[in-house]
Design goal:
By secondary structure, this protein is an alpha+beta fold. It folds into 2 domains: 312 residues, Beta-galactosidase, Chain A, domain 5, CATH 2.70.98; 409 residues, Glycosyltransferase, CATH 1.50.10.10. Helix 3 crosses helix 13. The longest helix has 20 residues. It is elongated.
Length: 735
């Protein structure tokens, strides 16, 4: 008998196929591992699979298996697989060679896959595709994977995830299997063509595959451009249930889309496939890692499978001088902050590369981050003895605290500076959190150096009291409130965003009401977002869908609650939020084509991160998190958090023109983000204030807490000293 042993899992090769057993129970199988899907001249994608013809055990214990596939038109493909145990994972390396090609066959795909023995019902499993699919994706947008579980193929290009991987877990047993790319893609697809209709495209240069799950039927899928599906029976094809797949080259399979054209198909779908040319002598080669294990819950499975692939696929660290970059960004903020009557502020948006201001529509937080920029200018100006920075920082802070409070005790959060008008935006809880935290930090900073701003504190007290009064009985708040104080929507998903502000208000004022309110909100967040995995509604410009920033604000909130109470419940939840948020980050690199000047042309896309579940690109918001991941490392001793903190502190800066070489008007400018999962960069070619703010905020916190900017330098300090420094609330407001 030919077999491999992966921990407690035994792989048996027999009768041309393989089985995976644990304690003599069958978990996974594949009776016909040689799968080929062929695009014929009629544009039909016909697939079949056949058993291996030969299986041989090598002297090193690995297994070599080979088989030939003959198409209906007579083309011949020779498939050679190498199965080996590499540490904690199984490696499957495949090479496919076209030995004979018929002109009626245009292209082909192959697939490495495992059928699930436990159940052939897709709903019996939870799924993890980084940034694309969590559990059943119930809180994701309509077009995301898993929203319709009555389809056959749930595939996305591996470049849609920060790590090219996919995992699924049986809900009843906890058994999970994960596939990941053995090594990242290093080549571009063909850039002289488009592939945006519902068809199959031949591309010899495509080295991207797709991960996902399928429950195939013996039918070829044919799609019209407007999303109507037709099927063609394949009488020679066998299908054995639910399978976890890696198909190569890629397929974006059966994605729900809005209707198209004057006549719309019922439940229109997008299905785009790439194939390699059926050309004699053409070969493809790729390898995947297979991880198996049993986990008590989805969170543990997600964490373990992500970290296993992370350690193998993580990109190199970007070289950047974070202290120099911080000072250059602050000089940039000082330059672009202008006065409009009594108001000070930066543009809301400016076009790149020449920094052409488009609008002075200012937000107290969120995208605009005006209060935060005001605090950073004040802090930096004092530390650098720069009077202009101090004047502009004070100008921003005084404008918001003196001129935006309403009779209800909560400020207006959006104003057009140059038009001197408030904008008709409601009181977003997320905006309040960002703005008021920054103003309170500025108040404490000034107080520590002997300068009092009682009106700043009164502004914060008024808003904190408003939050106490508005808190729902269950501990939550609605995402936003109209000026008449009625809720804008039923969603309560933004609740965690104000918890850290209320904790710090308790530290500054000593009012137990603020801490009690924060803990009550924390309990709601613990139950809904941590245990319930309802990380959604974190931004003010997206619908109430699952996203990254909701998880980030849970991390901020849980850490603040742990800092002030030392209740281990909050540290557990902070780790859970951190583990979730991390999976939105592009950690493995791949090449991308650019239509305009961009720092990524000289660096890598790693450090960028998806905004919402199902996105096909990302922005630079994870830069905001390097400091909190390092703090989490010191609190838990988990070295992975330290590693990831340094990755963020370095690689998130790759989108920044750190040295002026890109040609932007100012050193330190940054493009907000865009889509690049199809290896072409598309997006709004502009700068927004938050992009640089999320870089300077953790930089100033690193400096205030540890006196240094680089994690490698901080790590040289004695551990006990770093842990003492990490007790940030011991000295937050020492009066």
């Amino acid at each position: 008998m030919i077999s491999l042993q992966l921990k407690e899992y035994q792989l048996l090769f027999r009768n041309g196929g393989l089985e995976v057993l644990k304690n003599d129970s069958l978990l996974y199988f594949n009776h016909r591992p040689v799968y080929v899907s062929v695009k014929d001249y009629g544009g039909i994608q016909r697939f079949r699979d056949v058993p291996y013809e030969t299986i041989l055990q090598q002297t090193d214990g690995s297994v070599k298996a080979e088989g030939r596939f003959i198409t209906d038109n007579g083309s011949v493909l020779f498939v050679k697989d190498h199965w080996s145990i590499e540490g904690e994972v199984l490696k499957v390396a495949r090479k496919t060679i076209v030995e004979k090609a018929d002109e009626k066959d245009l292209g082909f795909q192959t697939k490495i896959f495992f059928y699930q023995a436990a159940s052939d019902d897709l709903r019996d499993y939870d799924y993890f595709s980084p940034g694309q699919w969590y559990l059943d994706n119930r809180y994701a947008a309509f077009y995301c994977l898993g929203k319709n579980m009555d389809l056959e193929y749930y595939y996305r290009k591996e470049t849609y995830s920060g790590i090219p991987m996919f995992a699924m877990q049986n809900k009843e047993s906890g058994e999970a299997i994960a596939l990941s790319r053995w090594a990242p893609c290093t080549t571009l697809c063909s850039t002289d063509r488009t592939s945006n209709e519902n068809y199959s495209y031949v591309d010899a240069k495509m080295t991207i595959g797709s991960f996902g799950v399928s429950k195939a039927t013996p039918n070829a899928q044919v799609y019209t451009y407007y999303g109507h599906r037709m099927t063609v029976p394949l009488p020679e094809t066998q299908c054995d249930g639910v399978a976890i797949d890696y198909i190569y080259p890629a397929e974006n399979g059966q994605q729900p889309v809005p209707g198209r054209g004057p006549w719309q198909a019922e439940q229109p779908l997008r299905n785009i496939t790439w194939v390699h040319p059926m050309r004699e002598g053409f070969s493809q080669a790729y390898a995947v890692a297979v991880q198996m294990g049993r986990f008590d819950n989805f969170r543990e499975m997600m964490k373990a499978t992500w970290r296993s692939a992370y350690d193998r696929l993580k990109d190199r660290l970007f070289e950047v001088d974070n202290e120099l970059l911080f000072n250059n960004i602050m000089k940039f903020f000082k330059t672009i902050t202008k006065q409009f009557g009594t108001a000070y502020g930066t543009p809301f948006v400016a076009q790149l590369p020449d920094f052409d201001p488009q609008s002075f529509s200012a937000e107290i937080g969120f995208v605009g981050q005006q209060a935060g920029i005001g605090y950073q200018l004040l802090r930096w100006g004092v530390n650098q003895h720069d009077e202009e920075a101090i004047e502009k920082g004070l100008g921003i802070l005084n404008y918001w605290t003196h001129e935006t409070m309403t009779e209800h005790g909560v400020p207006k959060i959006w104003v057009h500076l140059s038009a001197h008008q408030f904008e008709p935006q409601p009181h977003w809880i997320r905006e309040i959190a960002d703005g008021l935290e920054a103003i309170l930090d500025a108040y404490v900073f000034e107080k520590k150096r002997g300068v009092d701003h009682p009106e700043w504190l009164a502004y914060c007290v008024s808003t904190a009291d408003w939050l106490v009064g508005k808190q729902n009985e269950d501990g939550s708040w609605f995402r936003a409130y109209h000026y008449d104080q009625t809720p804008c929507m039923d969603s309560k998903a933004s609740t965690p965003t104000v918890i850290r502000f209320l904790v710090q208000m308790y530290l500054v004022t000593g009012s137990e009401a603020y801490l009690k309110t924060a803990v009550k909100a924390g309990d709601w967040t613990f139950g809904h977002e941590y245990l319930g995995f309802e990380y959604r509604g974190g931004t003010c410009d997206q619908s109430d869908v699952m996203d990254k920033e909701s998880g980030i604000y849970c991390l901020f909130a849980f850490l603040a609650l742990y800092d002030v109470t030392e209740d281990p419940k909050w540290l557990e939840a902070a780790c859970g939020a951190a583990d979730y948020v991390e999976t939105f980050t592009y950690v493995a690199d791949f090449p991308v084509e650019f239509p305009y000047k961009h720092p990524f042309q000289r660096s890598h896309i790693t450090g960028a991160s998806q905004v919402t579940v199902g996105a096909n690109g990302g922005d630079c918001y994870m830069a905001a998190c390097s400091y909190v991941y390092y703090r989490l490392y010191l609190l838990t001793g988990d070295d992975h958090y330290c590693d990831f903190a340094e990755f963020l502190n370095k690689n998130c800066k790759q989108a920044n023109d750190v040295d002026g070489a890109t040609g932007y008007k100012y050193i330190g400018m940054i493009n907000e983000g865009g889509s690049f999962s199809d290896q072409r960069y598309l997006g709004n070619y502009h700068w927004l204030p938050w992009c640089n703010y999320v870089e300077v905020d953790p930089a100033s916190r690193f400096e205030d807490t540890f006196g240094l900017h680089e994690i490698a330098d901080i790590e040289k300090l004695p551990l006990e000293e770093r842990k003492r420094m990490n007790r940030i609330y011991d000295t937050y407001h020492p009066f």
